[in-house]
Amino acid sequence: MIPEEREMAPHLRTALTLTNVDLDMACRYHRIPLYFGESQEGLFLNLATIFSTSDGIPKHLSLSIDSLFNGLFEKDTVSFSLTQQNLEDLYHRFMQNWNQMSGERASIRAQRSTRNGEQELDTIFEDYKIKTREAFEQTPFGLINLRINDIDQVQSSFNSC
């Protein structure tokens, strides 16, 4: 770890605590130097992951390359990142819908006769696409990003809405 990064780490932890970020997430960062001291040239490969305790797949994956040529350091010469939130829920919904399509469905009349008031309200909310604030925070999404020299080359996002 670079001394400046070590010095900044407690300040970042305080800032994350103040913004209610879940510090229970398993975060890993690795820097692999490919450096030649004689010529002051080289590359630094940076790998970062953030795993949440609630998801099996990582919330964030990042790979970046820093370069040092002729004594000039350039951060994030190339970077690739994947960010997601609740994509497992999207996968589970997809599989449930797939199973429902392959199985036989009950008739609409039979479904109506077994509904209670809460189910009727849920149906109305779904029909009019009414969502609670919690639903927005739990909406699955993903983002793939490729940057070269601090310019986005490819940025793709996907969500369930």
From TrEMBL:
InterPro entries: Vitellinogen_open_b-sht
A Pfam entry, by short name: Vit_open_b-sht
Top-level taxon in the UniProt lineage: Eukaryota
One function term, GO molecular function aspect: lipid transporter activity
Protein keywords: Storage protein
Ranges of residues in domain Vitellinogen open beta-sheet: 28-148
Name this protein carries in UniProt: Vitellinogen open beta-sheet domain-containing protein
Protein's organism: Panagrolaimus superbus
